[in-house]
Amino acid sequence: MAKTPASSAAKSFMAPVAIKDILPINVGLTPAQEATMVSILGSPTIPLTTSCQNSKASGRVKDLTETRTISPIFKLTGIRPALDSVQTVLKRVFAANPSLEAVLSTEGMLCVRRRKPTSGAISKKISNHSWGTAVDFKIVGFGARGNTKQNVPKFIAIMVPFFNKEGWLSGIAFNDSMHFEVADETIKKWSKDGKLV
Questions:
Q1: What average pLDDT does this structure show over 46-50?
Q2: Which residue among 19, 109, 172, 191 is least crowded, i.e. fewest CB within 10 A of its CB?
Q3: Closest CA to 75 of 63, 90, 64
């Protein structure tokens, strides 16, 4: 049976790209610190597990949360400024790579939980997904892999500069290729600019 254009595109976007070939990344951006997130967006109700417990989101996050259609393939639930930013980034990504829009999907955004470390070590830290400011991507028909060693899928390599330009940190920095999160510097700027009220 012949492959559809979407499945051919999906496979091509999963081709490995060496991380060394896309460096530098995340220049001027640092991971959002738990202390920053709690001070600006409040703490979720503790304790948390590594499963989504969105009813435990902070009051500020609940007030800012909405679900929005991002593409013909998926919706995201997160805080409004982060959704606005994702839409801005993906509009640019899709303009430069039109066939990606038909195959890009997600593992979600808001997920109130502890971190799931890629190293296997147990973490008690709160995941940045808990504030609706992180998103995990995948390609339709393929799983969303975190630790992809020395390579990343082509679609991630394509998206990193666009997300970095908008103030999002790539999870490549901590062996979580599918992950993007609003950087510490960006969340502080959004707060200063009054976007988180």
A1: 93
A2: 191
A3: 90
